[in-house]
Fold:
Amino acid sequence: MESKVIREKFLSFFESKGHVVVPSAPIVVQNDPTLMFTNAGMNQFKDFFLGNKIAENKRVTDTQKCLRVSGKHNDLEEVGLDTYHHTMFEMLGNWSFGDYFKEEAIDWSWELLTKVYELPEDRMYATIFEGDSKEGLEADSEAKNFWKKHLPEDRIINGSKKDNFWEMGDTGPCGPCSELHIDLRPADEVAKVSGKELVNQDHPQVVEIWNLVFIQFNRSAGGTLNNLPEQHVDTGMGFERLVMAIQAKQSNYDTDVFQPVIQSIAKNANVVYGIDEKTDIAIRVISDHIRAIAFTIADGQLPSSVKAGYVVRRILRRAVRYGYTFLHFDKPFLFELVEKLADQFSGTFPELKEQEGFVTKVVKEEEVSFLRTLEKGLKRFEVIKTDQRSKEIDGKTAFDLYDTYGFPIDLTSLIARENDLTVDVRGFEREMQQQKERSKNDAKQDTGDWTVIQSVENDSVFLGYDQLESSAHITKYRQVTQKGKEFYQVVLDQTPFYAESGGQVGDTGLLVSGNEKIEVFDTKKENNLIIHFVKKLPSDTNIECLARVNRKKRVLTESNHSATHLLHAALKEVLGDHVQQRGSLVNDKVLRFDFSHFSKMEVEEIAQVEKRVNEKIRENIVLDERRSIPIEEAKNMGATALFGEKYGDFVRVITFDEHFSRELCGGTHVNATGEIGFLKIVSESSVAAGVRRIEAITSLEAEKYITEKVDLVDEMMDLLKQPTDPIKAIQALVKERNQLQKEVEALNKEKTKSVKADLLHQIQEVGDLKLLASQSSFPDNDSIKQLAFELKREIKGLVLLLASDVQGKPNLTVMLDDDLVKAYDINASDLVREMAKSIKGGGGGQPFYATAGGKDVDGLAEALRKGRAILEEKLSLSIS
Structure:
């Protein structure tokens, strides 16, 4: 049975049981501070479990793109080494929100696996929660009795809290779970050892394929468990493992989910998959990682150096490293796999096919960039090797190679072995742990339980599209401690405050309670809740308060947000339809817009875009806002949807001229474009492979910017004595300056020649060495460097110590003959660092050449004396 058919049968089976098939949420998570990536099928339904939102459909089913590469669920280092861990995977699932419970979930799972997929009943095992006396939890006898309808009791296994009690996190919904395991070993192995003995023992052929979670409790911050008002079912079945079982393969990678990509990699590397373990691991790593890379980029997360973007970059670089080291790919290769992947998943996750060209280009540019970095890293390794005093590379140096050049410890160890060196792996691990601790401490936040003031059917009714202040009641609050500071998060029954979303910052303002005015310093979304951040609570949290948004900040932010829509449309007109929004930031000061485009914009293009936006502003186009439009109707209207956004069944459509700009958007906007005033683009730059960024200002900031520029021009004209043609006047000044600079450089060269002639008379012959230790003055540092290399070329056995005054600043230069460095184990970097202490400075360089700077020019003579003394000791010579 093909994997495509297996997926279709799952969804159609549950559709026949009254479930609504819903699309996968984006793999990149929005509006959830606890997650960067979707790591389980239930993530998009958290609001239903938490009680923040009421499910329209009590039964749903889907296949969800998931990624597990960080935090509690981190499978990255296992990928490729075994046959069943993955970074990106599909999670098939069915859910009940307060509808059916254990019996139906168990009966249907058995029916699907044994009747529809025809998996062997005698190879199945079920695990149930055995109870936990510390928690006061009894064994899940209900689930056991339901399993007895399908399995003999000896194949129903008790499981510990670790394996059979599911929790969303430290707090929140939780409950017992029941796992289905299948034994895929050959019959002769089964005859020797029962599968029961291998359940949950990490055996690659005795694997869990389905987890049925029965959510019935809520864990508080204090650790206590309370019954939920409704019971839910949350099931998850790894698609790749299911396909392995049905297709009777010994590995997920042997199924038709992975084989098309695996064979393509093997062909390009000119190897045969299944022959050599090292190349097999590399191919598995690449075939897995390209899925994670491609789908995260398609869902809107570009590789970068921070947060989720760093995770994507790390996965990509890990794939490149495996290809480079074990398959000898020294040119970009990952990008060639995107097309095959896009075709394979076009019917399931069409977003990749729709953006195939963009994703391909981003991956290729990232590969090119990292291969350059890899080359630099190898050059850095050569320097490290030359500087090594021992046969072991210390942990800090190994960590620097990892942190700066992306070298994993195994690659560093491999290169070290090739050069007859070892690596202090424990030292590396200590450095890695210290970095993790620093990151953990920076992000640490203690969040208390919600204190519920009053229960309402719908928290956080948003009024902010129509009004900037309203009456409100606090429905719940909690205390938060972060970096030693305490504040509160407050939820209101209704609010005019816009919560940070879609690039628009959250509102600020006041909660007025009686005579108290409490500052709201931020507003964010957590799943479906609008959360107001305040430093203190009203003295009486039960009384009605007034929620008032900072009007000035909101109005300026709206100007920038509406201008972003006009900018997006203008970019499409000028550059082409390939332009897609890739990110944005909108606040009261600036708008920042990231978009797909693969070359720097020409000055004329920027001017054309700016002109077009300002034309639309002057037209004073009235906002056409339509709320609660069915998503399909909105798309048929031509509304632009953003890749990576999760839209509901009903959306809000924002239009400024139906022939110019129409987008799906939940943000706040001006009533007419004339309110924006004026837009000025202040910069255009690159932020990632295939992504450009425009920063622009509007309204008061644009007015301020233009005023400052005009004042600058007026001041410049005054300095130039009000020339008729200011451009020509400036060109003449530049020409004159360049001529004077050439004359200064010529004089400096003559002075350096003179200094060189004097220095040649100061050379001391000490044995085979030519010692030149002198204090002098130079016009610039470049002259010193040029002189040092000239002397090295001309004088064999040179030992040069120069203490120089460069326009009042101290400079030390050490140049050593290459043979001397090898013969006496002496290092210019070490020598100059010791000398630099006398001028209150520091420096370094290479074993044969090093420089240092400092603060104390009066210490130059002492630095020179110290250098001589060190040389006497190192060379065992007497230097007079």
User: Anything to note?
Assistant: The chain has a mean pLDDT of 90. The chain is about 40% helix and 25% strand. The longest strand covers residues 206-219.
